[in-house]
Amino acid sequence: MSEHQLSAPPPGTPGAPAGPTSAPGSAGATPVPPAADESARVERVARGTGSRRGGAGGGSARILGLVVALAAICVVGYVTAGSRFASIDNMLVILSLASIIGVLSIGMTFVITAGGIDLSVGSVLGLASVWATTVATQTMADQYGWIVMVLCALAVGTAAGVVNGVLIAYGRVVAFIATLAMLVAARGLAELIAQRRTQLVNVQSFQDTLRGDLLGVPKIVWIFAVVAVAGWFLLNRTTFGRRTVAVGGNPEAARLAGIAVKRHTMYLYALAGLAAGIAAVMMLGRTGAGSSTNGLLYELDAIAAVVVGGTLLSGGRGTIVGTVLGVLIFATLTNLFVQNNLDSSVQQIAKGAIIVVAVLLQQRFTSRTART
């Protein structure tokens, strides 16, 4: 029952609505569907959630900070490695390194913006890459075209995401547990299908389409760019994106406004699964092989990039631009360590330190915003 109905005058008085009414809490009371203006009001609230959680000007400041951090890493790279780091070829290597993790991170941004988490995307990537390179799938691809392998990977990724979404939204399983179970199950199924062997891509049309460069830039980088632009548009310019922010900011208010929170949650995990399927196609295009080890621990890199980019782990605020910058920061940092022959352990320590600093800054900024 809406607020204006609770304040309505009793029947028989001037201005009272015609027809019988039910008292609040009475046995005969029936739920009143949200009015159209109420849904529109929540849409406006969803758009304003980012402002209350540090969007608007705060968002611009965060993006600027990420750009400065990325520029600083590049300066350090140039000072320590010189032209080896600053060459065009090395820049393309960094972009290629960022592309697959970047696509996973775009899908992860939507899930975390809604207050969820998905630990399974790396394993789902591995499963999709294996399923798309089985003998049966590649035989069909030889007959009907390389698109069969692409559709197979996308279908496997989306299906895994739907299973996650159903368990979380309708089965009421905690997101951490549901996606952790999928992480283990998907990796195990990939090992079972591949028999722990690497499956080479033998479909020449697939390799011709997805490997190599387009206009001097690796094709997987173009795919990442398209996914990033599509993700930005979906989150910032559509009702779906505003509802995602609303669900993350206050699920109960979103439900009362008429948003199907459970169904929307399922859609978000399906979207993350679809992103994992796209990343699997990119992995096959880059390596030319499907393996149960593909995507190992990629979920952690994706979550790290999203958090460093400025998306709140508690939900209610998300940024695709920040996520892309977060991915580029980690990819550039990794390349910097490789160029300077630093131990991989140092890379992991640096990543951990960056994540901790990012979360601490988030908590400080959120608490300061709450006080104001």
From TrEMBL:
Its main location: membrane. The gene is rbsC. CDD domains: TM_PBP1_transp_AraH_like (cd06579). Keywords: Cell membrane, Membrane, Transmembrane, Transmembrane helix. It is a multi-pass membrane protein. The lineage of its organism: Bacteria, Bacillati, Actinomycetota, Actinomycetes, Micrococcales. GO terms for cellular component: plasma membrane. It comes from Cellulomonas pakistanensis. This is Sugar ABC transporter permease. The keyword Membrane applies. It holds the Pfam family BPD_transp_2. InterPro entries: ABC_transp_permease. Residues 1-58 are annotated as: Disordered. Residues 15-30 have a biased composition (Low complexity). It comes from the Bacteria.
